[in-house]
Amino acid sequence: MFTRIMSLPLWLHGGLAAGAFAAFQGVKSKLDQSYAASGHPVDYATGQLTFDASKIESYYAVMQGKGTLDVYRTTQFIDFGFIAAVMILGLLLGTLVARLGPEASWGRRLGKTAAILAVTGAIFDALENLASFAMLREPAAISQPLALIYSSFAAIKFAALTAAMVVLLASLALGLWARMAAR
Q1: Percent of the chain at pLDDT above 70?
Q2: Which segments within 36-134 are labelled E, that is strand?
Q3: Main-chain phi, psi angles of 99, to 5 degrees
Q4: What φ, ψ does residue 167 adopt, rounded to 5°?
Q5: Contacts for 132 with CB less than 8 Å, ≥ 6 apart
C-alpha cells in the first residue's frame, strides 16, 4: 500500500493529504460541537481514561439528568467519521513526509512508521467506541471489566497517536536534513 501511495505524482499526493486534512478539520468540528452539546461533564481524555465503571456511570448520569445522553450516543457515531479521517490523514501525511527521505533512509522509514501508528491509533479508537456502545446499553450498571477494556483501548489510542506525531516530526526533520545535505 505504501508503494502505491508513494508512487502517486507528488502534486496529487500533496493534494490528497490537504483534502484529508480539510476533511479531518470538518469532522473534528462536528465532533467537538456534538460532544459539547452532549453535556459530558469532563473532557475527552479524562472521560476515556478513568478505568473506573462508577465514574463513567456518574458521567452518564449527568447527561441522563440533562436529557442529553442520546446526543452523546450520536457523538459516538460522528466519531467514526473522525476515526476514518484520522486514518486517511495519517496514511497520506506519513507517506508524504516519508517521501522527503531517500530510499531506505531513517526519514523514510519513520514516515511510514508514523502512518502505521496513526492507523493503529484509529483502530483502537474504533474499538474504544464499540466498548462505549456496550456501556451505553446499561449506562447505570457498567461492569468494571468493560470499563477497564474501554479505557485501555483509549490509552493505547492516545499512545499510538502521540507516537505517530512525534515520529512524523522526526521523519520530517531527517527528510529535510537529507535534502539539505544532498545540496
Answers
A1: 100
A2: none
A3: -65, -20
A4: -65, -35
A5: 76, 150
